[in-house]
Design brief:
By secondary structure, this protein is of the alpha/beta class. The protein contains 12 helices and 10 strands.
Length: 346
C-alpha cells in the first residue's frame, strides 16, 4: 500500500447543472459563473476544471486580445479565491462546424476550425496557469461506419495532436475516452486506445489520459482496472469519478451511488498507485438528480467527496495480510465476504 497522503479535489461549472435533459426543460434556475465559483470555494474544493468557453464565453467571436484579457481577468479571480485551474478542454461538440466530427470531420475546413479552436484553448490554459489540456473526443467517431475511413481518422487524430504539441512545448494532452454517446461508436473508446495513439505522436511523453468512471463502465470495463493500467504507464493525469447504473446513457451519478464496491476498488487502485502525489486532482464529474431542489443543489458534490474520503479510510484499514492469506489459499469465497463485511463496517 502506498504511503498515506491527502487528496486535492476539483469540479467544473457544468457539475452544477440546471436539470435539463433531452426530454425536458431545466428544473432549476440558471446561475452565473461567479455564483458557481463561490460555491466551489464555500465547499472547500481546491480547483476548478474548465471548458475553453467556460473561461472565455463566446470564444469564437472574440479576438486574441479579448481572449487574453478575459482569461487573465479570470486568473485574478481564481487567485483571489485561492482556487487553481486544474485543466482546460476545447468544447468541440457544440459548433455547427463539428456536426460530422471535429478532428476527423470529412470536411477539411471543419478540421481546420477544430485545430484552431484547440490552439486557442491552449492559450487560455497558459493564461490560467495550467499545462493540462483534456480532450474528450465527443464526435470523433461515426453514426455509420461507412461514412469514414477508420485508418484515415486515426491519422487525422495524430495530426491534430501533433499540431497541439508543437504549438506549446510545455502542455500535456490528456485524452478522455468514451465508447459511445453522442456518436454510435467512438474511435478511442478506452484508455488502451488513448495510450496507443499517444505512441504515434511527435512527443508520446506528453500525451496521457483522463479516466472517467462512467465511461469505463459504458465500455464494459472495471474503472479500477483502467486506473491500474494507466498508472502502470505513468499516464493518469486527471480523473473524473462518478457512477453509472449499467450500460446505458452517461448518467454521472454521485460517486459510489450505484455500486459501492466498484467505487471502493477504484479508491484502492488510486491508493496503491500513489495517485495525487504528483499534484493530480480528484475531480467529480457528477450532476444533481433532475428532481433536486435548489436548496439541495450542492449535495451531490459534497456526498461524492464524503464517500470518497470514507472509502479512503476503508482502503487504508483493509486487512491486506488476511486478504493475501485467503488469496494464497484460493479461498475467494472468504475473500468476497471479507470485502463485503469490511464495507458494511464489521
Amino acid at each position: 500500500m502506498a504511503k498515506a497522503h491527502s487528496y486535492k479535489f476539483c469540479f467544473g461549472p457544468w457539475n452544477l447543472s440546471e436539470g435539463q435533459d433531452p426530454y425536458g426543460p431545466p428544473t432549476r434556475p440558471a446561475q452565473s459563473f461567479d455564483w458557481k465559483l463561490e460555491q466551489l470555494k464555500k465547499l472547500g474544493f481546491d480547483a476548478m476544471m474548465f471548458h475553453d468557453d467556460d473561461a472565455v464565453p463566446d470564444i469564437d467571436g472574440k479576438s486574441d486580445t479579448q481572449l487574453r484579457k478575459e482569461a487573465r481577468e479570470l486568473k485574478k479571480r481564481l487567485d483571489g479565491a485561492g482556487i487553481a485551474a486544474e485543466m482546460v478542454a476545447p468544447r468541440l461538440w457544440f459548433s455547427p462546424l463539428t456536426i460530422d466530427g471535429a478532428y476527423t470531420s470529412n470536411d477539411p475546413k471543419c478540421r481546420q476550425y477544430a485545430i484552431e479552436r484547440s490552439l486557442r484553448c491552449i492559450d487560455i490554459a497558459r493564461y490560467l496557469g495550467t499545462d493540462l489540456i483534456v480532450l474528450w473526443l465527443a464526435r470523433e467517431g461515426t453514426y455509420l461506419r461507412e461514412s469514414k475511413n477508420g485508418r484515415r481518422s486515426v491519422e487525422l487524430l495524430v495530426e491534430a495532436l501533433d499540431k497541439m504539441l508543437a504549438y506549446d512545448r510545455k502542455i500535456r494532452l490528456a485524452i478522455e475516452p468514451k465508447p459511445n454517446e453522442p456518436m454510435d461508436h467512438a474511435y478511442l473508446p478506452t484508455i488502451g486506445h488513448a495510450l496507443a495513439i499517444a505512441q504515434l505522436t511527435r512527443d508520446p511523453k506528453r500525451v496521457g489520459c483522463l479516466i472517467e468512471s462512467a465511461h469505463a463502465m459504458l465500455a464494459g470495463l472495471d474503472p479500477a482496472d483502467e486506473i491500474d493500467f494507466a498508472m502502470a504507464f505513468g499516464k493518469l493525469w486527471s480523473l473524473h469519478l462518478n457512477d453509472q447504473n449499467g450500460l446505458k446513457f452517461d448518467q454521472d451519478k454521485p460517486f459510489g451511488s450505484a455500486n459501492l464496491r466498484v467505487a471502493f476498488n477504484q479508491v484502492r487502485a488510486l491508493e496503491r498507485n500513489g495517485y495525487g502525489k504528483n499534484g493530480e486532482y480528484v475531480c467529480f464529474d457528477v450532476h444533481p438528480f433532475r428532481p433536486t431542489k435548489v436548496e439541495h443543489w450542492l449535495a451531490h458534490l459534497e456526498n461524492s467527496r464524503r464517500t470518497f474520503l470514507r472509502l479512503v479510510q476503508k482502503a487504508r484499514t483493509f486487512n491486506e495480510k488476511a486478504a493475501k492469506a485467503l488469496i494464497a489459499d484460493r479461498n475467494y469465497a472468504a475473500l468476497d465476504q471479507m470485502v463485503i463485511e469490511h464495507l458494511m463496517g464489521r
